[in-house]
Structures are given as structure tokens and as C-alpha cells.
Amino acid sequence: MSFRRAGFVALCVFVLLLPGCHRNHANQKRLIDIIVPSQDNPFFRAEADAAAQRATELGYAVRVESHDDDAYAQDNLIDVAIASNAAAIILDNAGADASVSAVRRATRAGIPCFLIDREISTPNIAKAQIIADNDQGARLVAAEFARALNGSGAYAELLGKESDTNAQVRTSGFHAVLDKDKGMKLVSAQSANWSQSEAFQKTETILQAHAEIQGIIAGNDTMALGAVAAVKSAGRHNITIVGFDGSPDALAAIKAGDLDATVLQPAVAIARLAVEEADQFLRTGMTNPSEHQVIPCELVTKQNADQFGVFERKSN
Asked: How large is the average pLDDT for residues 43-51?
């Protein structure tokens, strides 16, 4: 038996021995397992917290775990959920193709899966796939980017992880808008893998190679903030930078005038909705008629940044 497998078996034994994880206690709260890519990243933390809060409000026990975008780790966490007899799984998955077997395994074990943020490539396995409209959001922020540059200028693009479907959808949405404007000239497109430090390094290199750059469009706020730092470090001014996600740090940068725009990806609303649909299914056996549910994004600029909080629009 491999060390990793032995460790997983030990984890399963530990989970089954926990007082809250025994299967047949009449007064025991049903467990909702929430699995996200990371609990350190503010976006994933926000969706995990929102899902956990709503599940607790609805009377469920909650366990929050992270797979760190590792499909093997995700497989282990799904197996733990099955061993724990979880009532439902809320999952921000580790890859469109790599996650299919894990979701199928949970479903066959009688545990309904409600996916958030990222889709899987095979339909009719999960009970719901609830995602932000990445294409619509990308087009919104690309249009604002072009407007800020008056439809003309050299620009660079920072892309997310090439294996992430959302990265591909966002860059496609950017170019659906920017490629129509003949004055916009893409001089460099590089993946920074959603990383702020990598975006800083890539932007430094891009600025050295392309002194004419007037704008940078990034596939998420983390990379956009890395670009902001690199531009400041280089002593450059008047470079338009936009991101995607609507993170608190991005909102602060917009208010400070360092970032020009982003789009809010409504992580909190999506996470809450997933838990509510899981609860509905567990109580009634009914789900939303549509497995694939797309929630619109909102453009955030200096004019309306005060209207947004932690990955959600503030309530009036």
C-alpha cells in the first residue's frame, strides 16, 4: 500500500470514528460537505463561508475541505464524504474532465452533488452546476477596457491556468469584444496561472519588451493586482488595468485609482443558492429544472465600487 493511500485510509477511519460522523443517530444533524480549491484564496474562502453559513442556518452539520486543485486530493475528499454518509456535497471542482469520475462516484453512492463556480464536462451527473456567466462578465470588462483606452492602443493579456475552463471562457469573451476594434493591438498574452507573484514577474517582462503598452487585461483580480504592483515598480503611469472577480482587494485598488475596473463574480450568491437547492432536494426530491444555471456578473468601476462588498452586492 502506498504512503498516500495508507494516509487516506487512516483519514477515513478517523472520520468514521468521530462522534458526529456515525451513520444512524436519529438526533444527528445531516452533514453537508463543502469542498473548494483553497481556503486561503479570498474568493474560494468567501464561497466556502457563504455555503457553510447557509447550511448551518438550514440546520445541517457542515464540514469544509479544500483540494488545492489536485484531482487526487479531491478523489480522497469525495471518498471521505461517502464514508461519512454525507447528505450532500457542494463542490468547486478540480477540473472539468478530472472531476467527472469523483462526482459520478458520489452520485452512485446516493450523495447528490451541487457544483459551484466551475463546470464539469459531462452533464446529468451533478444535480446542479451553478456558475457565474464568465463570458458575459468578460465582455463587460473588455468593453470598459476598450472604452478607457478610447478604442486604440497596445495591450497585454494575463491569462489564468490553461487547464481551467473559466480561463478559456474569459479570454474568449475578452477577444469577442477587443478583436472587433481595429485600434486595439494585442502585443503579448501570457499565462500567470491566477497568481499575483507570477503576474508581477510576467508584467515586468512584458513592460521591458513592449514600452508602448497602454493597457493590461487580466483573467482575474489576483493577476490584475500583480500587474498593478509591477507597473508601479517600473515607474510607469497611465496604464489601464482591469481584472475579473470583484475581490475586496480589487475594490480597494479601484477606489484608490490603481485599478480601472473589474467584474463581480457573485461567489456568495452562487454558494448560497447551491445550498438552498441541496436542501430543497433533500426535503422534496425535487431540483431546479435546469442543471446548468448561469448567474450574471456585474461591472465594477470607481463610480459604483462602494456598492459592493465581499464578492456580493451590498444589500440596500
From this structure: 96
